[in-house]
């Protein structure tokens, strides 16, 4: 196993009817900014509960954080925090609202243009405002990690930053808040969490026995509950398990001490920024083709994945790998998430511009061996046509 440090300071408050806990989780004298997305949190009553729990505190609100949150929108929140001398952020929403709040938290006291936070991948962040979250969409794991992905509309860049200063202080995970999610968002959440696990697991063996078994258990749980979350949308146990699995998928635990491969995400980000395809759907397009193109490097883990996650034991090694990749794509398709570029109206002509974007964003040596260069990315995209 590789050397590692693991530190996760986020307190999780899990279960139904836990939003009133905000009354003691948020400091009594805090000057609070609630950040949220479009209309969903207002419509389903989550915001009303949050406002009630915050009681007499000074509370302002900033709505309109879009899916794939933008620098342009978030800078208005930064200005509001500075102008009104607010000192505590509360994100109410999915990954986009939480990621956006992390950016605002880091940007408020940042001494230069906050876009530098993204260009330096978070290295220049020396402090951030404290914040908590109320999660309404199980998918990204942002509620218990220190990562954030921000889009700059003007330059068509979707970049990530990480900083130990932007762990949420706490996250409230109330599975009943997910009941109003449309099926498409539930399917997206299952696929996003699945790919997060794969990208920390399906590399090469380093003897991380617990990490491997944890990852395989989480994948098998998603295979079991993903279809149930769509078929029986008001099953509380299924929603609770989905929410906790998505959090565990990317809170740093299963990725500690093992190699990681974030190439699917990096290529996927370019598909979102260029063509507006939802985050999880970009992953469903890229991952099966990437596993196929990288099958030599990932051979031992692909065979382990085939045997332990999909119980594929017959056929020669190449056949078992093929079947594992096919089963993965079929799983996404069974949730209603299409896996080919053509399904999203994209053909071969789309590939060159995507490669140019990867190059512009420095994504020319990605994957666990940094050997996914532009020609390999081309093969991956061609394999996804
Ligand atoms: O804007 P509103 O009206 O709230 O509607 C949202 C949005 O349209 C809706 N929604 C959320 N909760 C709801 C609800 N609708 C009904 N009922 C509810 N309870 O869902 C839509 C999508 O929301 P969004 O937050 O964009 O989705 P998600 O959680 O999938 O977040 C995606 C973003 O997270 C980034 C992605 O790149 C993307 O920008 N990621 C962040 C990561 C991290 N910080 O670690 C890792 C991920 O890989 C990912 O890259
Ligand atoms: Zn993701």
The tally of beta strands, per DSSP, is 8
Through-space gap between termini: 37 Å
Q: What is the overall number of helices?
A: 15
Shape: globular
Main pleated sheet: 6 strands, parallel
Q: Nearest-angstrom radius of gyration?
A: 20 Å
Which ions and ligands are bound to the chains? 5,6-dihydroxy-NADP, zinc ion
What is the N-to-C succession of helices and strands?
EHEHHEHEHHEEEEHHHHHHHHH
Query: Which strands sit side by side, in order, in the main sheet?
Result: 1-8-5-4-2-3
CATH topology of the largest domain: Dehydroquinate synthase-like, alpha domain
* Helix coverage percent: 40-55%
Provide mean pLDDT, rounded.
98
**CATH superfamily grouping of the largest domain:** Dehydroquinate synthase-like - alpha domain
- Low-pLDDT stretches are none
Strand content: 5-15%
By CATH reckoning, the class of the largest domain would read: Mainly Alpha
Name the features.
two-stranded antiparallel ribbon, Dehydroquinate synthase-like, alpha domain, 385 residues, Rossmann fold, six-stranded parallel sheet, binds zinc ion, 2 domains, alpha/beta, binds 5,6-dihydroxy-NADP, 8 strands
């Amino acid at each position: 196993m590789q050397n590692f440090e693991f530190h996760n300071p986020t307190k999780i408050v899990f279960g139904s009817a836990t939003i009133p806990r905000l009354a003691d989780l948020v400091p009594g004298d805090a000057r609070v900014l609630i950040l949220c997305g479009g209309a969903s949190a207002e419509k389903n009553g989550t915001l009303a509960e949050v406002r009630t729990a915050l009681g007499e505190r000074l509370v302002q609100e900033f709505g309109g954080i879009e899916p794939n949150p933008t620098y342009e929108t978030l800078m208005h929140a930064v200005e509001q925090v500075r102008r009104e001398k607010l000192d505590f952020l509360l994100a109410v929403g999915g990954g986009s609202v939480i990621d956006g709040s992390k950016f605002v938290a880091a940007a408020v006291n940042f001494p230069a243009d906050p876009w530098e936070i993204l260009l330096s991948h978070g290295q220049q962040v020396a402090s951030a405002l404290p914040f908590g979250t109320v999660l309404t969409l199980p998918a990204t794991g942002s509620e218990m990690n220190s990562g954030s992905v921000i889009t700059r509309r003007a330059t068509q860049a979707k970049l990530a930053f990480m900083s130990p200063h932007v762990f949420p202080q706490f996250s409230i995970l109330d599975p009943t808040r997910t009941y109003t999610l449309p099926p498409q968002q539930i399917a997206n959440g299952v696929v996003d969490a699945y790919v997060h696990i794969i990208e920390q697991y399906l590399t090469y063996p380093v003897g991380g026995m617990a990490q491997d078994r944890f990852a395989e258990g989480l994948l098998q749980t998603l295979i079991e509950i993903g279809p149930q979350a769509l078929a029986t949308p008001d099953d509380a146990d299924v929603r609770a398990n989905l929410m906790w699995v998505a959090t565990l998928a990317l809170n740093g635990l299963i990725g500690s001490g093992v190699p990681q491969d974030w190439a699917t995400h990096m290529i996927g980000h370019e598909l979102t920024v260029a063509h507006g395809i939802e985050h999880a759907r970009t992953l469903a397009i890229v991952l099966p083709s990437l596993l196929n193109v990288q099958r030599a490097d990932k051979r031992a883990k692909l065979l382990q994945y085939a045997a332990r996650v999909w119980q594929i034991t017959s056929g020669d090694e190449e056949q078992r790998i093929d079947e594992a990749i096919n089963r993965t794509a079929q799983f996404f398709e069974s949730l209603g998430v299409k896996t080919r570029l053509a399904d999203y109206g994209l053909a071969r002509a789309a590939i060159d511009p995507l490669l140019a974007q990867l190059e512009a964003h420095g994504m020319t040596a990605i994957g666990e061996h940094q050997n996914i260069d532009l020609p390999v990315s081309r093969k991956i995209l061609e394999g996804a046509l």
